[in-house]
Amino acid sequence: xxxxxxVLLLPSLCFATETINCxxxxxxxxxxxxxxxxxxxxxxxxxxxxxxxxxDSTLRLDGKKRAANSSIWILLEPDGWDTYSTTYAGDFGExxxxxxxxxxxxxxLDGWFKSRLVSSxxxxxxxxxxxxxxxxxx
Length: 138
Fold this sequence. Notes:
By secondary structure, the protein is mainly beta. It has helices at 2-8, 11-14, 56-59, and strands at residues 18-31, 39-50, 53-54, 73-75, 85-90, 95-99, 111-120, 124-136. Helix content is 11%, strand content 47%.
């Protein structure tokens, strides 16, 4: 199945059948070019990923409320690894990390988890902090 996914480059076939609903309430920017512009601020942004694709309702949100611009997400950890977090990479460069207990990812995640969404450019790194609700689709 992995070879088929790599060959076809269709993440939706490789992605677990799950829905991820995230809400981020804190934003941090580390400005590498102008450190005095670094800092934290409160936000209210959301992101919904359904079977590896950002939902249309998320993509329609205004940029102040939409947490990410990626439309396709892939799972980065190989099957069978015991990890403390699960990481998804978006096609716009964002990285979503979901924290969990060691090995929870082997049984498929289900429930609320602390999460971080990171994006960067040459001058700054932006991190959004919040929680994601992960539900397996049946």
